[in-house]
Amino acid sequence: MIRNTKRQLIVANWKCNPSALREAERLFAVIKKAAPRYKNVDVIICPPSVFLFSFSIKGKSSFKLGIQDIFWEDTGAYTGAIGPRMARSVGASYAIIGHSERRERLGETNEMTQAKMEAALAAGLRAILCVGEKSREGDAAEYAAFVKEEVQIGLRGITKQALKNVIIAYEPIWAVGSDEADVPERTLEMALYIRKIIADMYDRSIAQAFPVLYGGSANAANARAFLRDGGVDGLLLGRASLNAKEFGKIVEIASEL
Ligand code: PGA
User: Fold this and answer.
1) Number of domains in the chain
2) Which member of 132, 149, 179, 218 has the lowest number of beta carbons within 10 Å of its beta carbon?
3) pTM score over 0.85
């Protein structure tokens, strides 16, 4: 997704929360109330997919909606799966793909992620491809190669044209759901590294404008540092997106930059 003006992208990944529609609606309503104050920020709310339809009716104007995962076929005999066109038809315009929790806990491979990327883009969704190393211990070349492979396989077969609807979220696995966020200086290196991979796969001008997000224990206390010094175009938030006040603060920080 190549953007002309520097707009920040704040993505709320609610994961498997909250436990009931009523609570989800309440959270959404509080978040929405603050929306008119936000400038130069795109806010994407990714609730559990069963709540999407209800939100698309209520949330038309202010925010965009996203789905947290998507299947690689639109229809068929795949019990429990949700096809990208279904997601679009109930209001999703973004899809998170290859989140580390799916890779680590549900056995999602780079090849599965790649198939999901293609299907999501073909259905007209914007795809947020999540990548990140398991650990930073040991040889830096090794974890860099791990991320490179996630990017290269995840984007395999994606044309230059389709790449305009792709965003990469750099989420080091050790920082996701932990209490240890990355430091912006290292995120900056990884954001540059990801853009270098894109430059090698596509070209330099595409890479320069290519949006990279940071995710992993981002919160109201560290958001400004990541957005200012981390070389990223926005944040992918887990826990901080479930607290309307904290989330609002982060969006406000992003809109001030
Ligand atoms: P966290 O999750 O902000 O709770 O660490 C981030 C993510 O999984 O995207």
Assistant:
1) 1
2) 179
3) yes
Token look-up 């003006």 returns: 5
| Residue having the nearest C-alpha atom to atom 7 of ligand 1 | 238
- 235: containing domain: 8-255
Average pLDDT over residues 206-230: 97
> In whole angstroms, what is the distance from residue 120 CA to residue 44 CA?
16
225 in a structural domain:
yes
Mutate which of 171, 212, 235, 243 for ligand 1 pocket (most atoms within 8 A of beta carbon):
171
Which CATH number goes with the domain that contains 122?
3.20.20.70
Whether residue 131 is contained in a domain is answered as yes
pLDDT tens-digit map of 91-121? 999 999 999 999 999 999 999 999 999 999 9
pLDDT in tens, 176-208: 999 899 999 999 999 999 999 999 999 999 999
Residue 43 lies in a domain: yes
Q: Has residue 3 been placed in a domain?
A: no
CA angle (133, 43, 144) in 5-degree steps: 15
Distance, CA 76 to ligand 1 centroid (Å)?
31
